[in-house]
Design goal:
The protein is mainly alpha-helical and 319 residues long. It has 13 helices and no strands. It has a domain of 173 residues: MetI-like (MetI-like fold, Orthogonal Bundle), CATH 1.10.3720.10. The longest helix has 39 residues. This is ABC transporter permease. Belongs to the binding-protein-dependent transport system permease family. It is a multi-pass membrane protein. Pfam families: BPD_transp_1, BPD_transp_1_N.
Length: 319
């Protein structure tokens, strides 16, 4: 397994380099600049051109890229043009919010999806299975942003049960009140995200359980008198979990990347909302750093999926 992990890590290096070059080139092709409209509206074009020049934005892209790489190896991703702060500090503060929201969403997703998939597969063709499938098809057919808007309107504005913006109440002071306020702000977006994400997990697990319980080794275990509880625990679940493990890494790192829809609709200060603002304001330094981070998380998701698969099924380990 360790050879596989090391091999994947080495392959990630040229992939990250190619991605960084593409991102750097494409970001410079966006119309506009980071200064027009973000400084004194009475500023002359000469002042804007001066800012562009001292920030090196008139240099060839390869020279800008080389300067960026040199600073990167010194732990410096540059300063944000919009926030006038170091990019590492901005992303670090937003990444904490995204991490906790992603963690809560992931826990709720698997806490809901795994029992539902197992329950539906175990009662194949019965009313319980039909109800779970109706729920899955409904969540898959409705666009995610519609679920967020309707859920936010009903539970946030109409019933006024949960906040619909921010990550913490301005009145919260002290460690415990701030922690509870952060959790309270995450409940609604995390629940809506989990309810939407459970459909794929439920369907995959249901199909895996149905295939496994009709296999020969399960029939052999039944013939030997093994109880159905032990058969599901030691035989069916392990094999049915293979499709879930195949995309578990992608789902985890995808959540860490930040949901653009969730953070935009709920004005949640995470990496997704930061990325949208960076694109709107042509904040090249923040934009480049976030895209590279998303790319790294996607590659990391591939590695995590392979590791999860090899843990569940040792037969597929590559040495």
């Amino acid at each position: 397994m360790w050879k596989t992990i090391l091999r994947r890590l080495l392959i990630m290096i040229p992939e990250i380099i190619i991605l960084s070059i593409l991102v750097f080139i494409l970001s410079k092709q966006l119309p506009g600049d980071p200064f027009t409209g973000s400084i004194n509206p009475k500023a002359s074009m000469g002042q804007i051109h001066h800012l562009m020049k001292i920030n090196g934005l008139y240099d060839p892209w390869y020279q800008q890229y080389w300067n960026w790489v040199v600073h990167l190896f010194h732990g410096d991703l540059g300063n944000s043009y919009e926030y006038q702060e170091p990019v590492t500090a901005i992303i670090g503060s937003r990444a904490v919010n995204t991490f906790w929201l992603a963690l809560l969403t992931m826990i709720m997703t698997y806490a809901i999806g795994l029992p539902m998939g197992l329950y539906a597969g175990r009662h194949e063709g019965k009313l319980q299975d039909a109800l779970v499938r109706i729920y899955s098809y409904a969540t898959m057919s409705i666009p995610f942003f519609v679920v967020l808007v309707i859920g936010g309107w009903i539970f946030g504005y109409d019933l006024n049960l949960f906040p619909t913006s921010g990550s913490v109440s301005p009145n919260a002071t002290g460690f415990l009140p701030v922690l509870l306020s952060k959790f309270y702000h995450m409940i609604l977006p995390a629940t809506l995200g989990a309810l939407f994400a459970t459909s794929s997990i439920t369907q995959y697990l249901r199909s895996g359980v149905i295939d496994a319980k009709n296999s020969n080794y399960v029939k052999t275990a039944q013939a030997k008198g093994v109880s159905m509880k032990n058969i599901y625990k030691h035989h069916i679940m392990r094999n049915a979990m293979l499709p879930i493990a195949a995309f578990a890494g992608y789902s985890i790192t995808g959540l860490l990347g930040g949901s653009l829809f969730t953070e935009q609709i709920f004005s949640y200060p995470g990496m997704g909302l930061l990325f949208l603002n960076a694109v709107n304001f042509r904040d090249y330094t923040v934009m480049t750093a976030l895209v590279l981070l998303y790319g790294f998380l996607s590659l990391l998701g591939t590695l995590l999926s392979d590791v999860a698969l090899s843990v569940i099924d040792p037969r597929i380990r590559v040495e």
